[in-house]
Amino acid sequence: MTSVALLGYGTVGSGVLEIIEKNSRSTLQTYDEFINISNVLVRNIEKHQNNKHFKLFTDSYEDILSSNCDIVIEVMGGIHPAYDYIKSALQARKHVITANKDLIAEHGDELIALANKFHVTLNYEASVGGSIPVIRTIKESLAAHPIKSVTGILNGTTNYILSKMYNENLSYDNALKDAQDAGFAESDPSSDVLGFDAARKLAILTYLSMNKVLKVKDILIDGITNLDEKDMIIAKQLGYKIKLISKAINYDHCLHAFVKPVYVRSNSMYGLIDNEYNTVAMDLEDIGEMHFSGKGAGKEPTASAIYGDILDILLNDKKVITPKLKQVKICHYAQGQHDWLVRLYSLNQPINLEKVLKFFNHGNIEIKDFADSHDLSFTITDISENKLFDIIHKLQDLNVISVSKYFMIL
Ligand code: HSE
């Protein structure tokens, strides 16, 4: 028998309990092992009086540590007290499974080292991509090939919001409310909509796939709150969708990482990923691009990844190896040439189109919208981000325009 204790009984915690119950018979038949739930740690025990599992509930972490559980599953979220609880569990030689990307992005290397020291496993498949088994795949199956870049739609809430705004013309507020009602958004949705949730997941993927330290503070992060209705209209007119893309690119001399809204072709791999679905694409040396997609948020997908982590511990009596992490130089712009959708505004006088075109050398620009002469949209191809940024700032310094934004086109 393997005993597991749950820390937290919110949407995900209750999903884990259900999935263990639902699969107990088949796990016993297939693996000759029964998974038993020893305790469930909650903050307010009174709230759970009518739960049929009430006798398992406790509000004391000491009860968890002193129980005979083999695996502690942390689904509380947030850094504190989860960090201290996980450390104590590892020191007590209990395997730990967590869905907590905040914690892994911030303290993953330290906790993995602690797990190694006490010869136990720390699994965190549910921290990135929900049901998509991407972490174990990168760690084990793709280890032979250096990964040149990782690109993903890593946040279910924002993808759901953008899909509802695009497909059903919902307002941002209504789409966010829908996402919260469906249980995708974090309790404080700002970490979803401002891009921090996706950035933490990108930091974890980069650490795993490139063995490089990427701190969340080194990722350029722009969420979906600065998008306006016109960005959406332009996307539709041009056959694009807007997606919150997370990307880390491993250049020879530096690493560039961002989380920001990007225009993607509606029928491209990324364009077809809608609602709470996530996708992770990796560009591997000698192999090329590989895409993994599936439900990235919600009760069942997250519980499913945690259940996989339990079986992984049961089936693999393995020595955990800590990768040697490399510190890396960060570069602030995407290198090389890319295509962009640019929007320029002038709050005072009309935009002088002649001047704008001169600065961009009349080159590879295609004007998409210049309806009211104060708001100019165009696409520009094959130009580096660095150069684009410089030109736009020169136009701003010369008062040709007052405000600007630009989006990468993938
Ligand atoms: N709030 C997260 C999301 C949950 O929407 O993707 C899963 O990590």
Bound molecules: L-homoserine
Task: List the uncertain runs.
Answer: none
Compute the CA-based radius of gyration.
Answer: 24 Å
The CATH superfamily of the largest domain bears the name: Dihydrodipicolinate Reductase, domain 2
Q: What is the structural class? A: alpha/beta
The count of β-strands is: 16
SSE series: EHEEHEHEHEHEHHHHEHEEEEHEHEEHE
> Distance between termini?
50 Å
How would you sum up the major sheet? 6 strands, parallel
How big a fraction of the residues is strand? 25-35%
CATH architecture of the largest domain: 2-Layer Sandwich
> Which CATH class of the largest domain?
Alpha Beta
Shape: elongated
Number of helices: 13
Strand order of the largest sheet: 3-2-1-4-5-6
Task: Explain the layout of strands and helices.
Layout: E1 2-7, H1 11-31, E2 35-41, E3 57-58, H2 61-66, E4 71-74, H3 82-91, E5 95-98, H4 101-117, E6 122-123, H5 134-141, E7 147-153, H6 156-167, H7 172-181, H8 190-193, H9 196-210, E8 220-221, H10 229-238, E9 240-250, E10 255-265, E11 277-284, E12 288-295, H11 299-315, E13 337-345, H12 353-359, E14 365-369, E15 375-384, H13 385-397, E16 403-409
Parallel strand pairs: 1-2, 1-4, 2-3, 4-5, 5-6, 8-10
Antiparallel strand pairs: 7-9, 7-11, 9-10, 11-12, 13-15, 13-16, 14-15
Helix pairs in contact: 1-11, 3-4, 4-9, 6-7
The structure holds L-homoserine (HSE).
L-homoserine (HSE) is lined by residues 130, 155-157, 184-186, 192, 197, 296-297.
Describe this structure in words.
It is a single chain. The protein has 410 residues and is an alpha/beta fold. 37% of the residues lie in helices and 25% in strands. The protein has helices at 11-31, 61-66, 82-91, 101-117, 134-141, 156-167, 172-181, 190-193, 196-210, 229-238, 299-315, 353-359, 385-397, and strands spanning 2-7, 35-41, 57-58, 71-74, 95-98, 122-123, 147-153, 220-221, 240-250, 255-265, 277-284, 288-295, 337-345, 365-369, 375-384, 403-409. The strands form three sheets. The chain has a six-stranded parallel β-sheet, with helices on both faces. Strands 8-10-9-7-11-12 form a six-stranded mixed β-sheet. It has a four-stranded antiparallel β-sheet with strand order 14-15-13-16. Helix 4 (101-117) links the parallel strand 5 and strand 6. Bound molecules: L-homoserine (HSE). L-homoserine (HSE) binds next to helix 6.
